[in-house]
Design a protein that fits this description.
The protein is an all-alpha fold. It has 10 helices and no strands.
């Protein structure tokens, strides 16, 4: 019974604290405390710590505790949902370096018009490393794409948007 009460209490606090965080708290004391940990529990504890202490808001305001003041708000969950919903079409488009689904992904992660051709050629030439198996998950595809983009001098600016 005590565990249920604690869980309900934590979940009740999440809507008020989770709006400004990324996985594992994003930044603030919670992210520092939970750095390197994976799973739901560390994420909940990081969010809870940031929300109850106000450290994330303070960190963003001052540029401390792993927070930045660059003004960029990313939305990786949209990219993850897009990849998950369009795996087959995306694989087809990436394999040939063109197509509506690939164009949509490029737009979603903000690839500039100047970089779209390089983006398309890069995913085409590295298709096997992005879709590394027939049983690959959308999370793995996103991770592989992120790593590929991060390794490119020009396209690395888009890696954190995947």
């Amino acid at each position: 019974m005590t565990k249920k009460i604690l869980l309900v209490s934590v979940l009740a606090l999440l809507p008020s604290t989770s709006f400004a965080v990324d996985n594992v708290g994003g930044c603030g004391w919670g992210s520092k405390l939970m750095a390197g940990n994976q799973g739901i529990a560390p994420q909940v504890l990081a969010v809870f710590t940031n929300g109850t202490s106000g450290s994330q808001t303070f960190g963003i305001s001052t540029g401390t505790s792993g927070c930045t003041q660059n003004g960029v708000v990313s939305s990786n969950w949209k990219t993850a949902m897009f990849i998950d919903s369009n795996m087959n079409k995306l694989a087809k488009d990436m394999s040939v370096g063109q197509g509506e689904t690939l164009d949509s992904l490029a737009s979603l992660i903000g690839v500039s018009a100047d970089d779209k051709e390089l983006f398309a050629n890069t995913v085409k030439n590295n298709f096997g490393s992005i879709f590394s198996s027939n049983e690959i998950s959308s999370e793995q595809v996103a991770g592989n794409l992120k790593n590929l983009l991060a390794s490119s001098e020009i396209l690395s600016v888009y890696a954190d948007r995947v």
